[in-house]
Structures are given as structure tokens and as C-alpha cells.
């Protein structure tokens, strides 16, 4: 099934699972990357293994030279109209590792959208010059729309969702899963772990995406700690219910810390405030991780954060061996390299070279 087989209005009405069936190729390899539900356990394990092989190859000049020779004939457009540092730079680095050439638009004031060009026409223009479009936008659902438009054009190229409104951030979830894979590789893997999400869970698309992706693992218990005004949305819980995942909600961070195998901290997403200053009225300090919490945290637990951070994790915690958010950020480069290699079908070359 592909996006050429369905009208836009019909696709829009599908639930995420049904939508995901239109996004992969017949062999299961992703074409467009729009949502976490298109990745199953096998795909996650395969991407993680590929990312690790790439990471080790990149340690040597010979390995980097090999990687840079894989996709010099491909070009990537980074269409980032929402502010970004880590996601933008990690995609830049991932493309460069594979030898891909890069173009970018980071401000619509410098593009023909200032003249009234529609986003549909802008992305159609990009597809004329580039072999994939990596998109980050404040407009929810736009990446899906552009994927459908390009699939039904004379030059269909992959769309990679690098953050779309408040709904999805699939590649962030992939790097989060890869971080958990690496963190727990010597203690039973992700299965059976308790993951505690803390902070602005209502508007955090990273939480939404990772929570859904964790349903691929057995016995993962999810805990959502947030102010009532920022508690996780019902549609996220509906996915967990449908997948028979156990979870709990609360507002007591101290009580949740001792049971956590992973704590996923988030900042207040006040850029989504409908009324200026609305988030400042919420007592968010109760949901900051403090050094005193570390005394109750398991010795083999991990502390994660999608970054950027504000006050929810003080720099004094950075040197704790359980703080993995800087590793988490680096993992974004490796998993996005693996994803591009998979989309453009050079993953087999990487396996062959790494085994030689």
C-alpha cells in the first residue's frame, strides 16, 4: 500500500496504525518517515544495530571515508521553519557522514513563501532539486500532507518528519529508543522497565512519540508526572490502552523516582501558550529534578532529556553517571545516519564493510 492508492481526505481520516501502512515500501523499508507507529520491534532493533555499526566505523579514517562514499550522488533539503539546534545539526551531520549534499531553508522570510507561495508549491519545488526533504514545522500534520502531495507528483521523494506541530517527532523517539537500547544492553534490554515522563506532557511531542514507540516492548510500565494542566493527553493514553500497556498518572515526582529505570525530563513548552504568560502561572518547580532525588534513584537507572533544558535539570547533575542526555544527543546523529542509509538502501553495504 502506498500514498498513491488513497485520496488525501481518506488518508486523513485513518488512525495512526492504518496511516503507517501507507508509508513503508513492500519490503518494510521506510519511504516517508512521518510517525512512530510505522516502526515495529524488528525495525527498531535493526536500526539500532546499524547505528552502532556506523558509530564504530566512524571512529577511523578508513571507516569515515567509506561512509562518505555511500551517497555522494544524493542531495537532502533541510526545510526547518521552526527553530531548531540539535535536530537540524544532527541531520546535517548525518547527511555529511554519508556524503550527501545539503540545502536548507530555515526562515520563510527568505523564501518565496513571503511572496505568497503555498507550502505545497514550496515543497514541490524542493523535490525538483533534492532527493529527500527533512521537515520541521510548527504546523501539525503538514509533514503528512507534503508526503501525500509528493507521492502523487511526478517526482516522489521521501519526506522525513523532524518535528510537526505538537503531534509527532519520530526521529527524536528513534534516538530515545536507541539510547535506551544502549543503556540497558547489559541489564535485560528495554523489556520490563519503568519509564517516568516528567514535565510538560500535554504539549511535548517527544513524549507523545516515545510513549507510542515503547509499546513495541514487553512489560514496559509508563508513569506520567506533571501538573494537572500539563498532564498527558487522552489520545496518548488511548494508544497505551489499545496496546494493553500499564501506566499511571500523578504529580509527585519524589514518589516516582525510586521506581524509575528511566526518567525522561521535559521543559515547559510555553511557545504553544494560547495566552501570553499562561505557563508562568503553573507551579512547575515541583517537577524539577534535584540532586536530592538522586539518592533515591536506582544505581543503574538513566536520566534523559530531549533538550533544550531550562531549570528542570541543574548542571550539577550532568556529571552523574546516570545522566545520559548528552549521549542521547549524540545518538541522534547516529540513528539519523542509520535511517538515511536505510531509506536509500545502502545499509547492506555498511554491514558488508563492517564485517570484512
CATH class value of the largest domain: Alpha Beta
Estimate percent helicity.
25-40%
Rg over CA atoms, rounded to whole Å, is 20 Å
Overall number of strands: 9
Q: What's the pLDDT, averaged over the residues?
A: 90
Name the structural class.
alpha/beta
Q: Which CATH architecture of the largest domain is right?
A: 3-Layer(aba) Sandwich
CATH topology-level name of the largest domain: Rossmann fold
Strand arrangement in the largest pleated sheet = 7-6-5-8-9
Element-level helix/strand string: HHHHEHEHEHEHEHEHEHEHEHH
Largest sheet: 5 strands, parallel
Strand share of the residues? 5-15%
Query: Rough shape?
Result: globular
Q: Given the structure, what is the number of helices?
A: 14
The tally of structural domains comes to: 2
Q: Indicate the low-confidence ranges by residue numbers.
A: none
First-last Cα distance: 36 Å
List keywords for this structure.
356 residues, alpha/beta, Rossmann fold, 2 domains, five-stranded parallel beta sheet, 14 helices, 38% helix, globular
Description:
By secondary structure, the chain is an alpha/beta fold. The protein folds into 2 domains: 3-169 and 331-346, Aspartate/ornithine carbamoyltransferase (Rossmann fold, 3-Layer(aba) Sandwich); 170-329, Aspartate/ornithine carbamoyltransferase (Rossmann fold, 3-Layer(aba) Sandwich), CATH 3.40.50.1370. Helices cover 38% and strands 12% of the residues. Strands 7-6-5-8-9 form a 5-stranded parallel β-sheet, covered by helices on one side. A 4-stranded parallel β-sheet has the order 2-1-3-4, with helices on both faces. The model has no long low-confidence stretch (mean pLDDT 90).
Amino acid at each position: 500500500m502506498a500514498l498513491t492508492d488513497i485520496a488525501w481526505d481518506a488518508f486523513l481520516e485513518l488512525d495512526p496504525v492504518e496511516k503507517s501502512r501507507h508509508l513503508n515500501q513492500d519490503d518494510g523499508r521506510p519511504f516517508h518517515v512521518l510517525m512512530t507507529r510505522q516502526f515495529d520491534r524488528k525495525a527498531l532493533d535493526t536500526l539500532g544495530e546499524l547505528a552502532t555499526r556506523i558509530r564504530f566505523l566512524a571512529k577511523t579514517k578508513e571507516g569515515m571515508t567509506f561512509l562518505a562514499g555511500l551517497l555522494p550522488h544524493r542531495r537532502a533539503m533541510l526545510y526547518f521553519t521552526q527553530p531548531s539546534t540539535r535536530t537540524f545539526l544532527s541531520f546535517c551531520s548525518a547527511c555529511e557522514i554519508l556524503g550527501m549534499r545539503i540545502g536548507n531553508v530555515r526562515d520563510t522570510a527568505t523564501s518565496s513563501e513571503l511572496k505568497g507561495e503555498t507550502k505545497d508549491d514550496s515543497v514541490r519545488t524542493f523535490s525538483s532539486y533534492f532527493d529527500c526533504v527533512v521537515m520541521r514545522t510548527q504546523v501539525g500534520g503538514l509533514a503528512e500532507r507534503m508526503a501525500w502531495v509528493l507521492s502523487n507528483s511526478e517526482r516522489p521523494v521521501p519526506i522525513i518528519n523532524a518535528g510537526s506541530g505538537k503531534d509527532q517527532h519520530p526521529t527524536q523517539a528513534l534516538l530515545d529508543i536507541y539510547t535506551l537500547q544502549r543503556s540497558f544492553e547489559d541489564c535485560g534490554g528495554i523489556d520490563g522497565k519503568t519509564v517516568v515522563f516528567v514535565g510538560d506532557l500535554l504539549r511535548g511531542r517527544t513524549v507523545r512519540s516515545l510513549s507510542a514507540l515503547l509499546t513495541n516492548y514487553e512489560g514496559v510500565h509508563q508513569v506520567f508526572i506533571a501538573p494537572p494542566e500539563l498532564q498527558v493527553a487522552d489520545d496518548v493514553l488511548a494508544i497505551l490502552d489499545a496496546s494493553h500497556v500499564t501506566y499511571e498518572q500523578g504529580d509527585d515526582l519524589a514518589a516516582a523516582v525510586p521506581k524509575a529505570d528511566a526518567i525522561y525530563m521535559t521543559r515547559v513548552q510555553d511557545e504553544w501558550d494560547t495566552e501570553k504568560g499562561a505557563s508562568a502561572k503553573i507551579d512547575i518547580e515541583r517537577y524539577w529534578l534535584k540532586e536530592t532525588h538522586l539518592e533515591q534513584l536506582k544505581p543503574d537507572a538513566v536520566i534523559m532529556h530531549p533538550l533544550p533544558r531550562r531549570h528542570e535539570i541543574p548542571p550539577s547533575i550532568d556529571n552523574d553517571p546516570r545522566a545520559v542526555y548528552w549521549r542521547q544527543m549524540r545518538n541522534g546523529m547516529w540513528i539519523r545516519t542509520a535511517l538515511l542509509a536505510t531509506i536509500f538502501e545502502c545499509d547492506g553495504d555498511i554491514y558488508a564493510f563492517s564485517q570484512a
